[in-house]
Amino acid sequence: MSNENGNWCLIESDPGVFTELIHNMGVRDVQVEELYSLDSDTLRAMEPVYGLIFLFKWQDQTSSQSGPNQSRVSSGVVVDNNDVFFAQQIIQNACATQAILSILLNRESELELGETLTNFRSFASDLPPDMRGLALTNCDQIREVHNSFVRPESFLTDPDEPRRPAGEDDDLFHFISYVPVNGRLYELDGLRRGPVDHGESEDWLERVGAVIQQRMGEYKEGEIRFNLMAVIGDRRKMLSEQITSVDRDISRLMTELEKLRLGESKDVGDVESRIAGLNSERAELEHLVDMENGKFARYRFDNSLRKLNFIPFVYQLARAMAEKGVLEPAVEKAKEKAKNRPRQQRPAM
Amino acid sequence: MSQLQFKAGRLFRDGSTNWVRPDLRSGTCFLKSIGSGAVRLRWVADSAGEGDESNEFVFFAGDASASRVSQSPRHHVIVIKSKSTSTRLFFWPQEPLERIEDLINRQLEGAADYDDDEVYQQGLALGDVLSAENVAAVLLDADVRRGLGETLPKEIPSESPRDLDRVVRSPQFRQALAALSLALDEGQLAGVVAQLGLEPRAGSSVAAFLEAVAEQMEMEMEE
């Protein structure tokens, strides 16, 4: 049966995918980073942090059925607050995009959202949470960007029908956003009826770690796997601003140094060592810029392979192997290997 | 592997209700064991034209069964239900219901008779054939690299053997190979195979596909 909201395909939960997704929606100067630690120092080093996305993956089907529900709120209160842009989840496969938007649309005053999201926000603001979710799944521009990350092989199967049990794997994922709004920390979970208020928090980066840790504690060990991502400001832009500021300090100290040298002051050595310190700080910042550039090059590489239809490549490769006479031995070797394989898992699409 | 075929109309569930509505076209239902404990069901309308929606489903052994719909004794309806998914397919056979029910169930159970391991053991994985080790030698050839490079987007370098080694080792390529292996073994790549100028048989399994590619290459080299 065809879906009136159009198809939202499952996309990979990966910082490179999310970063490009946000960029393609027209939002500027934002990137997504995977977090490996919840302590506030780690978070502070990434500032500005616009929000966190907490991703659950249940380890087996049975536990997901007892998954998130109203009774699982162990801290915080579900509230009806119009200051918070909250949308209920309508389509499972859209949940990653929805989690990202939940953050961006609540930090709109600090962000350059671009035309698509600005229009969507002003249109959906007056709607109740369930209608907002519906409006989101019906938004063609957002869906198009989301679906541009679909693996081409998934078109080999009929997206409207669950052809294989692997489709159930989709249900094993769940995304929750944490975002500060007007000095209070909110948990936005599209499966609840409203935002969960975690109270006033001047410094939400200090607070959010404990809230997430508590949430994690609600599950038995091994029951689920977690993944945490941060929606943050463009690192390269931050770094380049820091470099500019260091350069300014260096040139100021250089002028000072010249004067001191003329006056044969005994402070010369002190200023020289401060300049040396700033230069090594600058080198460190340049190194971080290089690392960011390398990361973004990797994102481009991975994302273009994600979108690639590999059939022509596979065909050319098999032909080249046949031409060089190595295809047949490779097939024989692979047949041997298949014989010894106990049981092959069906690959997830 | 055996195939069951019977004339039947189709019914669709009316929205999310439990009511079904008939598709007024007559058609034929095909059930075929496709290995790995799976049965493919395909319904084709007699009047089906090009671009008609796909009516194809895959059921796994032990997961699906057919039964007569008791609520509509007069209407001669049979339902095929999946236990693990919400899939419910309703048919309107033109032959006695008991017989069709029995035949469908035997076909669905029949899939269980194939030992999973046995079927899989014979299945060839593209990933094993096109492993980074197996393709390393051909990537040393500049003409091969050029040919492969033409199938890649501009963001992907393909100048050196190392560039292409990075592609063949990428998780995206390995995932694509796993998906393509499954699609080939399930016979879903008939259209693709035809586009590549390979004979239809090439679309029946990974082994058949690779054989056909080798044969095509051999013929081209003889010319």
From TrEMBL, chain A:
<dbReference type="GO" id="GO:0016579">
    <property type="term" value="P:protein deubiquitination"/>
</dbReference>
<dbReference type="InterPro" id="IPR041507">
    <property type="entry name" value="UCH_C"/>
</dbReference>
<keyword id="KW-0833">Ubl conjugation pathway</keyword>
<dbReference type="GO" id="GO:0006511">
    <property type="term" value="P:ubiquitin-dependent protein catabolic process"/>
</dbReference>
<feature type="site" description="Important for enzyme activity">
    <location>
        <position position="189"/>
    </location>
</feature>
<comment type="similarity">
    <text>Belongs to the peptidase C12 family.</text>
</comment>
<dbReference type="InterPro" id="IPR017390">
    <property type="entry name" value="Ubiquitinyl_hydrolase_UCH37"/>
</dbReference>
<dbReference type="Pfam" id="PF18031">
    <property type="entry name" value="UCH_C"/>
</dbReference>
<protein>
    <recommendedName>
        <fullName>Ubiquitin carboxyl-terminal hydrolase</fullName>
        <ecNumber>3.4.19.12</ecNumber>
    </recommendedName>
</protein>
<dbReference type="InterPro" id="IPR038765">
    <property type="entry name" value="Papain-like_cys_pep_sf"/>
</dbReference>
<dbReference type="InterPro" id="IPR001578">
    <property type="entry name" value="Peptidase_C12_UCH"/>
</dbReference>
<dbReference type="GO" id="GO:0004843">
    <property type="term" value="F:cysteine-type deubiquitinase activity"/>
</dbReference>
<keyword id="KW-0788">Thiol protease</keyword>
<keyword id="KW-0378">Hydrolase</keyword>
<feature type="domain" description="UCH catalytic">
    <location>
        <begin position="7"/>
        <end position="233"/>
    </location>
</feature>
<feature type="active site" description="Proton donor">
    <location>
        <position position="174"/>
    </location>
</feature>
<dbReference type="Pfam" id="PF01088">
    <property type="entry name" value="Peptidase_C12"/>
</dbReference>
<keyword id="KW-0645">Protease</keyword>
<dbReference type="GO" id="GO:0005737">
    <property type="term" value="C:cytoplasm"/>
</dbReference>
<dbReference type="InterPro" id="IPR036959">
    <property type="entry name" value="Peptidase_C12_UCH_sf"/>
</dbReference>
<feature type="site" description="Transition state stabilizer">
    <location>
        <position position="89"/>
    </location>
</feature>
<feature type="active site" description="Nucleophile">
    <location>
        <position position="95"/>
    </location>
</feature>
TrEMBL record, chain B:
<protein>
    <submittedName>
        <fullName>Uncharacterized protein</fullName>
    </submittedName>
</protein>
